[in-house]
Design a protein that fits this description.
By secondary structure, this protein is an all-alpha fold. It has one domain. Helix 3 packs across helix 7 and helix 5 runs antiparallel to helix 6. The longest helix has 26 residues. It is globular and about 45 Å long.
Length: 163
């Protein structure tokens, strides 16, 4: 069992590790198209829950790790996840007040912006082709947001003391 430390940093770190693991988990091709953006969902939760501790720098750092892990051009995920963290820091007061379904819609928009920025940055480097299936993770992410929120809220309540 994880020790309940004063800051909960280890629990936050483990949640990002789990998100990175889930994002590289191999799935069949038909299901892989619908894989949600686990890293962005976890980042969004922690920025909403602890905006004074988790922010743009954490988004950038997790993005660099994701770039290395996925083998993408260095900085693409870093820049888009830093933008996600920035947008959530701007909106977290309002997002906390919304019911879960409204949060999901707003989270879907933010993840859509994250994916659009990644697409634009990749298009600068090389010509790529994509179809509508590129956007499927946005929809699965917004559908899964309430469960991600509940699970990470329980982790935060059990392992993170808020100062």
């Amino acid at each position: 069992m994880i020790k309940n430390d004063s800051s909960g940093s280890f629990a936050i770190f483990l949640s990002f590790v789990a998100a990175l693991f889930l994002s590289i988990l191999p799935l069949p091709d038909g299901i892989n198209l619908f894989k949600p953006d686990w890293v962005a969902l976890v980042l969004i939760y922690w920025v909403m829950a602890m905006p004074n501790r988790i922010g743009v720098l954490v988004g950038w750092s997790v993005g660099i790790v994701a770039d290395v892990l996925y083998g993408t051009l260095f900085g693409i995920h870093a820049m888009s996840l830093a933008l996600v963290a920035y947008l959530i820091q701007l909106l977290y007061h309002r997002l906390r007040l919304f019911p879960r379904w409204k949060q999901s819609i707003n989270i879907g928009v933010v993840i859509g912006i994250h994916m659009l920025l990644g697409l634009i940055l990749r298009k600068f480097i090389q010509p790529i082709s994509f179809d509508f299936s590129y956007w499927f993770p946005v929809f699965t992410s917004l559908i899964l947001w309430p469960w991600v929120f509940i699970i990470l809220r329980d982790v935060r309540r059990n392992f993170c003391k808020e100062g």
